Protein backbone atom coordinates (compact mmCIF):
# COMPACT_ATOMS: atom_id res chain seq x y z
CA UNK A 1 0.00 0.00 0.00
CA UNK A 2 1.22 3.46 -0.80
CA UNK A 3 0.64 6.51 1.34
CA UNK A 4 -0.99 9.62 -0.05
CA UNK A 5 0.96 12.70 0.84
CA UNK A 6 -0.50 16.17 0.71
CA UNK A 7 -3.74 15.21 -0.98
CA UNK A 8 -5.07 18.33 -2.68
CA UNK A 9 -8.53 19.49 -3.60
CA UNK A 10 -9.46 21.10 -6.90
CA UNK A 11 -10.88 24.11 -5.08
CA UNK A 12 -8.67 27.06 -4.18
CA UNK A 13 -10.17 28.01 -0.82
CA UNK A 14 -6.85 29.43 0.40
CA UNK A 15 -7.44 32.62 -1.57
CA UNK A 16 -10.60 33.23 0.49
CA UNK A 17 -9.14 32.53 3.96
CA UNK A 18 -10.04 35.29 6.44
CA UNK A 19 -12.41 36.84 3.89
CA UNK A 20 -16.20 36.95 3.92
CA UNK A 21 -17.81 34.30 1.71
CA UNK A 22 -21.39 33.26 0.90
CA UNK A 23 -22.15 29.56 1.15
CA UNK A 24 -25.25 27.89 -0.30
CA UNK A 25 -26.26 24.46 0.98
CA UNK A 26 -28.36 21.57 -0.29
CA UNK A 27 -31.91 22.27 0.84
CA UNK A 28 -31.70 26.00 0.15
CA UNK A 29 -30.03 27.48 3.22
CA UNK A 30 -27.60 30.36 2.69
CA UNK A 31 -25.06 31.86 5.06
CA UNK A 32 -22.27 34.40 4.96
CA UNK A 33 -19.24 34.25 7.20
CA UNK A 34 -15.48 34.63 7.41
CA UNK A 35 -13.73 31.53 6.08
CA UNK A 36 -11.33 30.32 8.77
CA UNK A 37 -10.41 26.87 7.46
CA UNK A 38 -11.14 23.94 5.16
CA UNK A 39 -9.99 20.40 4.44
CA UNK A 40 -9.65 18.03 1.46
CA UNK A 41 -13.32 17.01 1.47
CA UNK A 42 -14.51 20.65 1.44
CA UNK A 43 -15.61 20.83 5.07
CA UNK A 44 -15.57 24.55 5.90
CA UNK A 45 -15.13 26.50 9.13
CA UNK A 46 -16.88 29.89 9.11
CA UNK A 47 -16.76 32.53 11.84
CA UNK A 48 -19.10 35.47 12.48
CA UNK A 49 -21.72 33.63 10.43
CA UNK A 50 -25.22 34.84 9.70
CA UNK A 51 -28.00 32.86 8.04
CA UNK A 52 -30.44 34.40 5.57
CA UNK A 53 -34.05 33.52 6.33
CA UNK A 54 -36.43 32.27 3.65
CA UNK A 55 -40.10 33.00 3.12
CA UNK A 56 -42.06 30.02 4.55
CA UNK A 57 -44.64 30.32 1.74
CA UNK A 58 -42.05 30.59 -1.06
CA UNK A 59 -38.78 28.76 -0.24
CA UNK A 60 -37.04 30.33 -3.25
CA UNK A 61 -37.49 33.85 -1.89
CA UNK A 62 -34.96 35.28 0.57
CA UNK A 63 -36.22 37.65 3.24
CA UNK A 64 -34.29 40.63 4.59
CA UNK A 65 -34.15 38.85 7.96
CA UNK A 66 -30.95 37.23 9.18
CA UNK A 67 -29.96 35.36 12.31
CA UNK A 68 -26.53 35.23 13.90
CA UNK A 69 -24.99 31.76 14.13
CA UNK A 70 -21.42 32.54 15.20
CA UNK A 71 -18.93 29.73 14.51
CA UNK A 72 -20.15 27.16 11.94
CA UNK A 73 -18.60 23.93 10.71
CA UNK A 74 -20.16 23.16 7.32
CA UNK A 75 -20.06 19.58 6.08
CA UNK A 76 -18.54 19.42 2.60
CA UNK A 77 -21.20 17.12 1.16
CA UNK A 78 -23.89 19.71 1.98
CA UNK A 79 -22.06 22.65 0.37
CA UNK A 80 -23.30 23.54 -3.13
CA UNK A 81 -21.66 26.93 -3.73
CA UNK A 82 -18.95 29.07 -2.18
CA UNK A 83 -18.47 32.61 -3.49
CA UNK A 84 -16.75 35.73 -2.20
CA UNK A 85 -19.11 38.41 -0.88
CA UNK A 86 -16.86 41.19 -2.15
CA UNK A 87 -17.59 41.96 -5.79
CA UNK A 88 -20.85 39.98 -5.84
CA UNK A 89 -23.96 41.70 -7.15
CA UNK A 90 -27.46 40.50 -7.95
CA UNK A 91 -28.62 40.70 -11.56
CA UNK A 92 -32.06 40.22 -13.05
CA UNK A 93 -32.86 36.84 -14.59
CA UNK A 94 -32.88 37.22 -18.40
CA UNK A 95 -34.89 34.00 -18.81
CA UNK A 96 -37.94 35.16 -16.87
CA UNK A 97 -40.75 36.47 -19.07
CA UNK A 98 -42.09 39.74 -17.77
CA UNK A 99 -45.82 40.13 -18.45
CA UNK A 100 -46.47 43.16 -20.65
CA UNK A 101 -49.02 45.70 -19.44
How would you describe what is shown here?
With 101 residues, the chain is mostly beta strands. The chain has a domain at 15-82: Roll (SH3 type barrels), CATH 2.30.30.100. It is built from no helices and 5 strands. The chain has a 5-stranded antiparallel beta sheet, with no helix packed on it.
How confident overall, as mean pLDDT?
85
Q: Give the fraction of residues assigned to helices.
A: under 10%
Low-confidence stretches: none
Task: Summarize the biggest pleated sheet.
Answer: 5 strands, antiparallel
Provide a compact summary of the structure:
This protein has about 100 residues and is mainly beta.
List the helices and strands and how they pair.
Elements: E1 20-25, E2 30-38, E3 44-54, E4 62-74, E5 79-84
Antiparallel strand pairs: 1-2, 1-5, 2-3, 3-4
Pfam family, one: LSM
Protein name: Sm domain-containing protein
GO cellular component, one term: U2-type prespliceosome
Keywords:
single chain, 101 residues, mainly beta, SH3 type barrels, five-stranded antiparallel sheet, 5 strands, 45% strand, globular
